[in-house]
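Hi V.,

Quick status before I head out on leave. The structure for the redesign project is tokenized and pasted below; the design run finished overnight.
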């Protein structure tokens, strides 16, 4: 998760080249974890039998937001 957060911050910096990160007040707006493809494997067992092994993986999405300062003139 830490690497994913660093990647999201780096993406924000690339998209907003002139902006300073300190002034943007970035925060994690949403974190979403979805299931991905399941790799199905077979492990041999005794007497010609087999057990199914399911190797699960996930998709993780992080959205960053910025807190805008409300300035009333």
């Amino acid at each position: 998760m830490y690497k994913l957060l660093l990647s999201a911050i780096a993406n924000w910096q690339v998209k907003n080249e002139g902006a300073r990160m300190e002034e943007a007040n970035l925060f994690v707006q949403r974190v979403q974890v979805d299931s991905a493809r399941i790799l199905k494997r077979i492990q041999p067992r005794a007497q010609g039998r087999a057990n199914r092994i399911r190797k699960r993986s996930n998709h993780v999405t992080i959205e960053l937001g910025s807190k805008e300062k409300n300035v009333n003139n």
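Above is the designed sequence. Strands lie at 26-35, 39-44, 50-55, 58-66.

G. will cover questions while I'm gone.

Best,
W.
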